[in-house]
Design a protein that fits this description.
By secondary structure, the chain is of the alpha/beta class. Helix content is 38%, strand content 20%. It contains 21 helices and 28 strands. Helix 4 packs across helix 5. It is globular, with a radius of gyration of 28 Å. The structure holds pyridoxal-5'-phosphate.
Length: 751
Amino acid sequence: MKEYEKKLNVSEDFKIAYFSMEYGLHECLPIYSGGLGVLSGDHLKGASDLGLPFYGFGLLYKLGYFNQQINLDGMQEEVYEENNWYTKPVHKLANDDGTDMILKIRLGSEECYIQPWCINVGKVPLYLMDTNLTLNKEKFRHITDYLYVADREMRLLQELVIAYGSMELMKKINLNPTIFHLNEGHSAFLILKRMEDLINEHNFTYEEAVELIHSSTVFTTHTPVPAGNERYSNDLVEPYLRDRCLAFGKNFNEIKQLAAEENMDNQFSMSVLAIRFSNYINGVSKIHSEVSKKMWHSIYPGVCEQEMPIHGITNGVHIQTWLGPQLVGLFDRYIGTGYQHIAEEKSVWENVLTIPETEIWEAHMQRKQQLISYINKRLEKSLIYKSDLQLFHEGGSLVLDSSHLMIGFARRFAPYKRANLILRYPERLLKLLNHPTHPIQFVFAGKAHPADVKGKELIKKIIEFAREHDVQDKFVFIEDYNIDVARHLVQGVDVWLNNPIKPLEASGTSGMKAGMNGVLNLSVLDGWWPECYDGENGWSIEADENIIDQELRDRLEAEELFYKLESEIAPLYYTRNKNGYPSAWIAMTINSIYPVGRDFNMHRMLREYVNDFYLPGSLYSKILSQDNQKCLKELVGLKSLLKDKWQDVKISDLKLDLHENAIVLSGQKIPVTATTYLNGIDDDLLECEIYYKYDDKFSTASLRKTRTEGDFTIFEGNIKIVSSGIQYFNARLKPRPYLFRDFLNLVKWYY
Ligand SMILES: *Cc1c(COP(=O)(O)O)cnc(C)c1O
């Protein structure tokens, strides 16, 4: 039996193709920029651990993402280094005769050649497309130069290459995935390519192709920032898609409708295209899924926001990648070797509670000292520290002190992450830094996107503050945030600070890495943190989303941040028992390792994707294809019948059997009668239900067909009253959901 079958209790064979523009596997492979990349890398590693039949697809960038240098003015400069792939753990794919495998795709009216490469991520192959070939015309050679290239046409070409190139490769190596997992809209052209192949090569109709794609596509959105979702002007896209669409019988005007977004004229939205064609959609935390429902509600106006089919699958992190070696040693002893392989079993983590406090603390202090040595070494290379401080002359003084409380803040310097929140009250900050008994030191790291002027300003402000007030030894900015820096930081600081503007942090995986290592989170209750925070395992900053004035909100949240640092965090850290240990702090540390390890590991996340998406999707598409597509043909037939007749279907009357002024008691059932006109549609195909709201919740109750009266069909049932009564009710007709998973566009409401 395969490992995933044992672990996940599945018997059906299936294959998952996973698409992402970036993969953060290790610092030696600079083909990632941040959170999405590291998550994709961890996803592949976890899939390998579990023995899932998994295949990654992406691009191999010649220059990748930039290395960050800070110049003497404190400004970020971007340095691009050309990758020499022959010295890295990546190999070219070859034909059977040993020659380089070269793929050919059409881009507009021209041919583009692609060399596919492969990285073996454990047992999972990651295929990466490279267009830097002399076979290509000059422009095409540069398609895969930069990750997140700013030029719109180049970006479009990248997204065409990941979609069309990956599909071409699958044909070549005879890989037929049952699931296509799209991360962000970047790879959504896959949908059009699959449609083209299903129609032109496998003789399906357009409607059949739509059903097949829908049943086997997973879409994960990773950002609640509207600008983070990919859009192109239709004029830019059309030359590349016009002929391709015509070849399967659609003109571009029809296809562009599928990617059209409310209030965004003439834009081709990759996210919208992906959502329309995915049966399985998720955000990366519970809050993020709710925010995404709001964001994309206009795609399915017939249903209520809460019913938008966007799940919340909260991210996780790969333990073996992120857990510090000292903790690995402790876990091996107290949990038992091999716990990493059964990390999704919650009971495994209970043994964390048995680790003695002294051992946890010693392990942490070793990581902290290691981090300080690491930072000092890195700073030797830093222009700004050399020039300003001459810290390293003649073995001079070193920055940071392991006996002082250390706060880490490392993330993209995007303005919504508010790296400068702590600078709001400079005097108060200086007091913390220079406190005689409770000093606090800060370590920052992070890159700003090359085009993000505001983000770069934030970095400059941090550096200038340290210079101006002569606190460069305790208010430190480390250049060139990458996986290596991240690993050292999340294992070695005492507190991990995160203060984004809620709800703009989709998940925030760095806090999980920290929490798992016994580093305490101090974070705005956004992304994953509300799912973990219990008052005893870290600290919260209560964002007040209802305050519209951002200035006021920043002030209140900064106040809270300072209050917690001054009155709770520093005192707790510096309170030592007679043996010199901060007992209460260590107890909190254990309270953090336990739930973070248990609930935010990569295996738990993968289990949810497998059980909720990958397996049902594979089974569903298999059912559609069985017996010469019997179910598929029936489904398409029924759908077309429903669509033809739906226009005139209606609920003509709705009656609640409730007298005016009647006193409604909790638990009471109120009879409901709906009179409907079904336009000849068999009532078995439909569901008539009552929808009602109470408090902030809603409920639905299915009504039963009781009789017909002439052309009308009568449905009856009850509303069950809860304590607060009902604030609103309505009735609706919809196709039965198990027959029509995307019933969402065919809903008829009474009002
Ligand atoms: C984990 C990680 C991230 C993502 O962390 P956030 O909490 O989302 O900011 C970004 N970059 C690197 C290098 C990481 O390791």
